[in-house]
Amino acid sequence: MKTLLVSTVLLLAPLAAHAACAPTDFAIKDFRPGFNSMGSTTRISLRGELVNNCAAPSAAQVRVDVKDADGKVLQTKQGWPAGTSNIAPGSGVNFDLGRLFHYESGMSSFTVSIVDVRTW
User: Fold this and answer.
1) Least buried of 44, 88, 98, 119, by fewest C-beta within 10 Å?
2) Which domains occur in the chain, in start order?
């Protein structure tokens, strides 16, 4: 019985560490949306830096909403800027999520938020 209890504690310990990190423990710095025209094609650039302010190495999922001038959401995408790698505490990773979106005339504003945290 004692062995089972110790095994259970060791198994659940990584989950407890994961629970300690929340979306509010991450920050997005220097978010810079923009458009790049290349001939007849317009590409979207959505650059920024995702910073881990959590005490443990973790990764965060970022959500970007593209809106028109009236505030109507035209497109929404989510991505993991660090992929399946954890970001060390106090460190950041640069990202550009523009490749996830297709240009539409009427795109006016971009909203970025952190929606999930995971430890890989």
Assistant:
1) 88
2) 2-118 (2.60.40)
